[in-house]
Amino acid sequence: MEATKTAHTRAYRQGALVAKDFPLSDVSDYLRDEDTVVWVDFCAPSADDMVALAGELGFHELAVEDALGEHQRPKVDYYSTHLFLSCHAVSAKLIKGELDTTEIDAFVSPRWLITVRKDEGFDMASVVERWDRSPDLFAHGVSFLLYGLLDVVVDGYFGAVNAFDEYYDEVSESLFSDAPLDPHEQRNWFGTRRALVQFHRLVVPMREAVSGLMRREHGLIDKELDPYYQDVYDHVLRVSESTDALRDLVATIVETNLSLRDYRQNQVMKKVTSWAAIIAVPTLVTGFYGMNVPYPGYGETWGVWAASGLSLTTAAALYVSFRRREWL
What we know:
A hairpin with a 2-residue loop joins strand 1 (7-13) and strand 2 (16-20). Mean pLDDT is 81; it is low at 1-5. Helix 5 (142-174) runs parallel beside helix 7, helix 6 (183-213) runs antiparallel to helix 7 (226-289) and helix 7 (226-289) runs antiparallel to helix 8. By secondary structure, the protein is an alpha+beta fold. It contains eight helices and seven strands, in the order E-E-H-E-H-H-E-E-E-E-H-H-H-H-H.
């Protein structure tokens, strides 16, 4: 099998790192030693890369198809010789109302962990750093390597939750501003709401995936690592509950925004109607006195003053009445 530029490799023997960045052709050589565990990471591999490695390690054809496909939901599939895990790393760019996701697939067996990333959106260096922080756990082999991957991915969810939380705090404060929302901000609102729904759809299935890994009948996870996987599961639950709360908050914000818009519209209509009523009184009086027929004060100076006084007095009375009712 030819080496590929998009692959990173590591080999651990009895809990210690013995080699890294070796050619893929050496994977079989390292696996001949029963005490050795191998990790291989692909970024955007070609079909030939996956088929070659599948032939060497015995991947199931359906798992290979899922790894090469697009838009897999978080899940765990079990096969006779290995399991297939699919999860997503996320990064929220709420200024643009977007959620960046990177699908990470993993082929897992007691002797090896093969990770496949769809793009460079997720840096595996953070996972390697997490592994290196706990060298005493390397003795648990693939169980620990898989835990380190899940721990980094799930911890990244909290950053997205905090970003959504801060964004909607700002939105909540701006709701009561007198300045209307510009179209760009409204579009950003919609994009962020859609990103939250997308995030929720990625988080909820992760509960089932992590829970499935912890089941005893599969025998993949060492008993000593149960507290670590339980910690990851608890983090997923916290994120899931936070997304549920955020979705409720978004629904409340939308309802409040609509209510405030209707309220402001009613306030404007009251003011317009009140001023129209005030202006209508002088129009009525002058219209009456403008008729070409005799009337009290017709052709007299006092008639002009009477019409003017009646108009001003009535308009002033309406203005005071509307101000008391806070219509103006």
